[in-house]
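User: Sequence in, structure out. Go.
Assistant: Echoing your sequence, followed by the structure tokens.
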Amino acid sequence: MPSCIPAEKSLDVNTIVAAKFCQLWLTCKDKEEAAKIGRSLLDKKLIACYGVLSSFKGEFWWEGKIKKADEALLELLTRLDLFDEIEREVAKLHSYDTFVLEAVSVTRISKKAEQWLKSELKNV
């Protein structure tokens, strides 16, 4: 049983089906870069939708020092099995050599949203 589901709860079909969907989070240098990447992935049907959360201040370790940057956050909705292909596409478009692309599994999703995702995403 997956570790994210408490042992005392039984798994139902909706939980198992929805687990293949995920949200991806990608930091970008600005909202223009985020939108460019989002649109490219959308055109290729690698994602069903994207949203740009523009301009936030981040601090992070880089080359042994703490750095600060104004960045944008790109949120993507997709299937987990498309992650590697999405990562390859992001690598072609992103201005950072070391970008952070994170997947967060969706454990539950509304039935209509699930149907929409299944109909819109690329088949592998």
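User: And one key feature?
Assistant: Residues 25 and 75 are 5 Å apart (CA to CA).
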